[in-house]
Amino acid sequence: MNVDVDLNRAEPAVQFVTSEKNKHLPEKTSILGDRMEASFWLARWQEGRIGFHEAEGNDLLRKYLIRLTGGETTSVLVPLCGKAVDLRLLAAAGHQVWGVELVPLAAEAFFQESGVTPERDALGPFERLRTENLTYLLGDVFALTPELLGPVGAIFDRAALVALEPSTRERYVEVLSACLAPGGRILLVTFTYDQALAPGPPFSVPREEVQRLFGERFELTLLEERPVEAQNPRLREQDVTSIQEVAWLLRDLRS
Ligand SMILES: C[S@@+](CC[C@H](N)C(=O)[O-])C[C@H]1O[C@@H](n2cnc3c(N)ncnc32)[C@H](O)[C@@H]1O
Question: How far apart are the CA of 201 and the centre of ligand 1, in A?
Answer without folding.
Answer: 11
